[in-house]
């Protein structure tokens, strides 16, 4: 595979350490910075993202790659030999033709991008894998994060696989399933008394004090965020190298939504898909819906809120990518909406009942918002639609624990079963 080598790799890094990435660029003022462990613009303190100089990249080159996100290595800030390093090798999750759910919702064509199939059962494995590569190339020795749960699982597992130390910080009231699913990897798990936003603030302070640490969503965030582009690449490739008409995406920090849009845009510019209009829709839980509130009010600035929702993986009250989410949905003609916790639970069960997919609370949010957008006339029922299921329902069992269970408990005798069966059929 032909891969251009960036000539300006950070000091101490090997040539090509970041593949076709050539610089960091401020999303606010456009000022350019060299590649490195930087996340804020020196000119205006705006957030940085990765810039590239891509060579010609063909579909055939990508299709010859591994069945993981590393098939898109030329489009990511990773070296050409990334697949030779120890990682969890996430990605290339299934795109489910959701005919039963489409009929239930009144849609002509619906696909579920089911990212619960990743190694730690959420899309976070994608972003952590790219952040781990950056940390390794920059010579950082500790992989760390503040997390609402799924990221903690992914960081702990990726570090274990890579053989490096990890430290994860989580709110102390996190779902027990997600706490255990991090601790099992023998990470240094620290529970913080506070919300995710409190945890994130502490992580930023630690990142400023400790040398050699890679907080995946703080000081190496520009690289980490690029991992979400692989969702866009996979959707397009699995649809036969074309874009859907509309996509519904769960929103916490908002990074996943903005990077899926960036991924679609890159595919068009590189000629890997035919250019066409598409609409991007966002989904939040009502108990933590700062971006949806800003959208409804017509604001460009997102006011922080204090989260109060069962959808803890989306419970970020001060979303870093909030203004950029608003930009994307307004530019593409989409919308961002929210649903309450009761609707979240109803739609977790709806997805399971119709498609056999047990999504976590974020999946219930996304499906609930999808149904709401259809009912409100915002989603075109005749347009091809994709929605993202970002995690596994086994991580948020408490959400449905009082809603489902055995139909009946009976003694181990056929007559007891027969009485029940005849009375229910």
Automatic annotation (TrEMBL):
Its cofactor is pyridoxal 5'-phosphate. Residues 89-391 form the Tryptophan synthase beta chain-like PALP domain. Keywords: Lyase, Pyridoxal phosphate. One of its GO terms (biological process) is L-serine catabolic process. One of its GO terms (molecular function) is L-serine ammonia-lyase activity. InterPro entries: Ser/Thr_Dehydratase, Thr_synthase-like, TrpB-like_PALP, TrpB-like_PALP_sf. It is an enzyme of class 4 (lyase). Its EC number is 4.2.3.1. The modification N6-(pyridoxal phosphate)lysine is found at residue 124. Pfam families: PALP. Signal peptide: none annotated. Belongs to the threonine synthase family. NCBIfam families: thrC. This is Threonine synthase. It comes from Microlunatus elymi. The lineage of its organism: Bacteria, Bacillati, Actinomycetota, Actinomycetes, Propionibacteriales.
